[in-house]
Amino acid sequence: MTARSIVVAGGASGIGLAVARQALAEGWRTIVVDRQDPLEDINALGARFVRCDLLEAEAARVTLEGLARDEGRLDALVVSAGGAMNGHFALRDAEVLVEEFSTDTHTVLRAVRYLLPALQAGARDHGVSDVVVIGSIAGSTAFEEAVVYGAAAAARHALGEQLRVELREDRVRARTIATGYVETPLTARRSIPAVTDHIALAPLTAQDVAAVVHHSLNAPQDVNVHDMVLVPTYQGWA
């Protein structure tokens, strides 16, 4: 039997890399798409690395459509790509803010749209396929110095929910997983004081999030666990 196939957009580090590593451990054919080099040699682990900047429209289209043709089967897409930073809104350059908002939203739109035909085919041939968008509780809870990050997180959540409704008849299960503070290389750079001051003693790990992602991927085919919020046990608010 052909192994299930997963694309992890933004899989070079952090949550995406943890999702890719667990996919490999579970026997998935694993493709990592990112604009930066992975933090470890994932090719040696058995994954395929495809370099692509999802903010470059034509490059994203050519790369992702070609990837779908090459692989022949696609069962899941996990979008972890993004990177909006934080800071006092009034002190930051407007065009930088626009670019960061685009980074956290266009990556989802392009990855899902260009790989959707392959996901629909996978669902027809194998019963179901999945789209998982990694988001943040900042999309529903306001924090200081997180205007763009929070707005983009809200957009990612809305994209996941709208996709869930629109794609359900194709048996493509879409969901967003909104996380609390996760200790990754990226969050170390965009620390939100209101978050880290409260839960720095016990943050989530990238492996924690990956475990929940794969739990949702392995759910029975007639079940879609969606609109998920994932926070550390220590965290009493979301």
TrEMBL record:
Organism encoding this protein: Actinomyces howellii
SUPFAM superfamilies tied to this protein: NAD(P)-binding Rossmann-fold domains (SSF51735)
GO terms, molecular function: serine 3-dehydrogenase activity
Gene3D superfamilies: NAD(P)-binding Rossmann-like Domain
Protein's name in the database: Serine 3-dehydrogenase
Pfam families, per the entry: adh_short
UniProt key word Transferase: no
Swiss-Prot/TrEMBL keywords: Oxidoreductase
Keyword set includes Oxidoreductase: yes
Matches recorded under InterPro entries: NAD(P)-bd_dom_sf, SDR_fam
Entry's EC annotation: 1.1.1.276
Family assignment from sequence similarity: Belongs to the short-chain dehydrogenases/reductases (SDR) family.
